[in-house]
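[job 4471] stage=fold_predict status=RUNNING
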Amino acid sequence: MKVYEVATFTCNSMRTTIILSGSLLLLAILFLLPVILLPKPLPELVSILVYPGFGALILSPLVLLVTALISLLPSVNVQLQNCQH
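[job 4471] inference complete, writing structure tokens
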């Protein structure tokens, strides 16, 4: 297998990155919701849930933004022409 074959951006990899971005957003909501809704959350709960939740909340739009920017490259855009939306 050649190196450039691993780094190709196809319809399947585009779908995978969008699913990953949505999953990260759901994970962030899942982690942050108990801390937001509980009237007096435990400090251990806050430190365990807030940091991964905030990290997932930041990574979700970043993954989507990088995917969108990569898809705008001319060489990648040619590969994505046959994708069914």
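[job 4471] summary: The chain has a mean pLDDT of 83.
[job 4471] exit 0
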